[in-house]
Amino acid sequence: MAVNSAKLIEILNLIANDIHANKDFLTELDSAIGDADHGINMSKGFKAVTEKIAAMGDKDCGSILKTVGMTLVSTVGGASGPLYGTAFMRAGQAIGSKTELGFEDLLVTLEAALEGIKMRGKAVKGEKTIVDALEPAVEALKSSPTIDINLMEEAVKAAEAGVEYTKGIIAKKGRASYLGERSIGHQDPGATSCHIMLTAILKGIKDS
Ligand code: ADP
Ligand code: MG
């Protein structure tokens, strides 16, 4: 895997496309246990991201990721904006001025993103949030000394299993927590959008 700044922008655009394609689905999930805006929030945020990063091909990877984070924080109103915004800003900080990323950097960015989300949202695994998809993915990437495309496939599968797992648990954070036990039986919107993003990243690095 060799992801330079232009390729990183391409991958971020893949994420944006898949978020737009799943806008109604994510909003539907949020209508069951939240306020029916997760797809709308994410789609709005990533539309702004695509516009902001279009001309950043000559910038380093850290600057691009930090711009994504700041754009999400400033354009997304819901809880997911500051959470994903912090994730991308932390990923950008972790990667710094690099202009090309390899598989090890994938773990560095995703681990920093997870730490950022946990720091901002104070959620741990098992509370029906983004963490339930992202943490298993990071754990999968850490399970082997060498990271390759197969391990990233495993990481995406782990995130998918994490999304499944959210169906059976009670929400302890965010709006869904107001429902208490009534949140059981519903898939978490944020964990779902996280899995969608990881799948897009996998797609993007497969041909790099
Ligand atoms: P809001 O809840 O403000 O309407 P969204 O609908 O965009 O924001 O996002 C809801 C998602 O945010 C939830 O499905 C959940 O995954 C995630 N979320 C909420 N609170 C937290 C938190 N403290 N930590 C991690 N993720 C969270
Ligand atoms: Mg919502």
Please describe the biggest sheet, giving its number of strands, its sense, and whether it closes into a barrel: 2 strands, antiparallel
Gross morphology is globular
Query: Which molecules other than protein and nucleic acid are bound?
Result: adenosine-5'-diphosphate, magnesium ion
What's the total count of β strands? 2
Unreliable segments of 5+ consecutive residues: none
- In what range is the share of β-strand residues? under 5%
Q: Which series of helices and strands comes N to C?
A: EHHHHHEHHHH
**Name of the CATH first level:** Mainly Alpha
Looking at the overall shape, the CATH architecture is Alpha Horseshoe
Mean pLDDT: 97
Give the tally of structural domains.
1
Question: Strands of the biggest beta sheet: in what spatial order?
Answer: 1-2
Q: Helix segment count? A: 9
Radius of gyration: 16 Å
Helix content: 55-70%
The oligomeric state of the chains shown is single chain
